[in-house]
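Quick log. Single chain, no ligands specified.
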Amino acid sequence: IFEFYLSANEILREDGRSWFGFEVRDAIGRGETIVNRMTGSPPLVQFALGALYNKAGEHQSAINALTQVVESEKSNESAFVFPTQELRNYVKVLRKIERDPSEAPLTSAAIRSLERARRLRGKAILEESRAAFVKNSSNQPARAELPMAGRSEAEAIEAEHTNGSGRTILDRLSEQPDYTEKPPTHIAAANGSKTKRDSVKREKKDPFVDRKPITEVLHDIYDRNVQ
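-> predicted structure:
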């Protein structure tokens, strides 16, 4: 938690320094880990996390975090009557730093700076995120400008499948020639011509194409001998 305070205060401090987006995102990740793992995280953690969301431009998350700290009475430290052991350990270290800041001067300065920002600028940061969120929402393009706007879902689906021609893909496919049952005329004619040419070639190549069967030849010889 105290390491998170150090990194958050360094980023949120108005000293003219420019921070890379991934640096802010890393600090946000540390704060989110604390909030997710710790039941009843300290209000100062919630404020620092919300302020980092604001700096990163994540205004919806900033609103969610800062609303709990700035506008909710439960965010006051006095509301934590039944603490967890983690919260007890945190408060024990916090009071030790407050009593003797020289033991952890940087951490002590970061805590005082974040507490001062929470007290003086908490509401202003929350309102800034709310205004930015409303502005960003109003700048979103209207769905009415989309090509399919104004059509019913059924009409949009039909238009997509017919491609504006009124005929579906199945209709266009059914109009294609069927080559599986009967080939086109020019293909059939070509196949017929090829068959005739093959037959003529076989006739020319076979010299014994008109030769009589042996039984017929023997009958002819027998008839001549008898005569």
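The two ends are 134 Å apart (CA to CA).
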